[in-house]
Amino acid sequence: MMYFEMDCPCKGKNLDKMLQPAILLELFDTNLYGFTLIRKLSQNSMFDGNLPDKAGVYRYLKKMEASGLLKSDWEIDDDGGKPRRVYFITDQGKDCLANWAVALKAYIKSVEVLVEKIDKKVGTVS
């Protein structure tokens, strides 16, 4: 059986829909600057130590802010340095993250059933 070496969705690298709960989780306990958030996301197992697409993350942040899941504000360092945008989760964002937990648990069960069916048809590729 052939395992694709190209950048195929079948390799699980393109989980852009999972970016929203990952961002909300990182912001749950602490406010973060955009680049700090991107670095923290790279430590998430979904990104396997690689930085996620910066432009994509910033687009997602803007979209999430427009939908009320998070807010941002400009902060200026005490030394008068360049202003930086800091992001923080809203109560609506916290509720959304709780909904993600429910949805992901259901997805896990569905994916397990799907994998079992695939294994019966084609076997497991190691």
How is the topology of this model organized?
Blueprint: H1 19-27, E1 32-33, H2 34-42, H3 54-66, E2 70-75, E3 84-89, H4 91-122
Antiparallel strand pairs: 1-3, 2-3
Radius of gyration: 18 Å
DSSP strand count: 3
Proportion of residues in helical segments: 40-55%
Q: Show unreliable segments.
A: none
Strand order of the largest sheet: 1-3-2
Mean pLDDT: 86
Biggest sheet character: 3 strands, antiparallel
Topology order in helix (H) and strand (E) letters: HEHHEEH
What structural category arises from helix and sheet content? mainly alpha
Protein model, in words:
- With 126 residues, the protein is mostly helical.
- The chain has four helices and three strands.
- The chain has helices at residues 19-27, 34-42, 54-66, 91-122, and strands at residues 32-33, 70-75, 84-89.
- Strands 1-3-2 form a three-stranded antiparallel beta sheet.
- A hairpin with an 8-residue loop joins strand 2 and strand 3.
List keywords for this structure.
single chain, 126 residues, 3-stranded antiparallel sheet, mainly alpha, 4 helices
Compact overview of the structure:
It contains 4 helices and 3 strands; from the N terminus they run αβααββα. With 126 residues, it is mostly helical. The radius of gyration is 18 Å and the shape is elongated.
